[in-house]
Design brief:
By secondary structure, the protein is an alpha/beta fold. The chain is built from eight helices and twelve strands. 35% of the residues lie in helices and 20% in strands.
């Protein structure tokens, strides 16, 4: 089979591509450096000739409202239009658990719009809703740093290792389209502050952590279960302690 992986050089894409290649598939890495640009449309039509599956792992270069919406609108229309012309049989997109509940955030409104475009395009599809990656924890700490403390939303998370996100994406891409959403998550569910505290201990960071229901997450206030799966998700096997051993 021929797979086109958009965002194939990123955190997840760079793990998906070798998985598919090891299975003997023909894999095209779609990235501007390779002459394939979802924002301008450059190289899309030629890259998608004969493609069976397109995997969209692209992401906005910035999280502000205008940039995110412009990115997902433009990239989505260009990519799905090219897939329609090429007769692609399966569009796989990676999105986020809780997207539909995070309308206060411009970034998540843009992600919701991306999913809307997918549903409307007429290309058979599968959307994967993932919880936060373990690898996001340092960035969450950085964004919550205020006056020597770490301010965090008082909400549950169920994070997952990026390797297992890639495993799920590659597996979904080789299955028939579901024309729906599948959720994936890690094996442990706990308040965000618990995971942050464990990471900070592991790296010797002694700053105090302040969980607060009034602290937003990418511009949106969270309820306790906003960021955890609504249904029975596919669960990863790597727990946070195992991942921390490699930090």
């Amino acid at each position: 089979m021929k797979f086109v992986v958009v965002g194939g050089t990123g955190l997840i894409g760079s793990k998906v591509v070798p998985r598919l290649q090891q299975q003997g598939h023909d894999v095209v890495v779609a990235a501007p450096a390779n002459g394939i640009d979802v924002l301008t449309g450059e190289g899309l039509d030629s890259a998608l000739v004969g493609a069976d599956v397109v995997i969209d792992l692209s992401n906005s270069p910035a999280f502000d409202d205008a940039t995110a919406m412009q990115f997902f609108e433009t990239a989505g229309r260009n990519l799905l239009g090219a897939e329609t012309r090429a007769g692609v049989g399966h569009h796989v997109a990676l999105s986020v658990v809780g997207t539909r509940k995070l309308g206060q955030s411009g970034y998540f409104r843009a992600k919701a719009r991306q999913e809307e475009l997918i549903r409307e395009a007429g290309v058979p599809y599968s959307v994967i809703h993932s919880t936060q990656f373990f690898e996001f924890i340092p960035g969450i700490i950085k964004s919550g740093a205020v006056d020597g403390s770490i301010l965090l939303p008082a909400a549950l998370i169920q994070p997952i290792a990026s390797d297992e996100v890639a495993e799920s994406v590659a597996r979904t891409a080789t299955l028939p389209p579901s024309n729906g959403v599948v959720e994936i998550a890690g094996p442990e569910c706990a308040p965000l502050s618990v995971f942050v505290a464990r990471y900070m201990r592991a790296v010797g960071d002694s700053r105090p952590i302040v969980p607060d229901t009034a602290t937003p997450y990418f511009g949106a206030l969270l309820e306790e279960r906003t960021l955890v799966p609504e249904t029975k998700p596919w669960l990863g096997r790597v727990d946070f302690g195992q991942w921390l051993q490699g930090v």
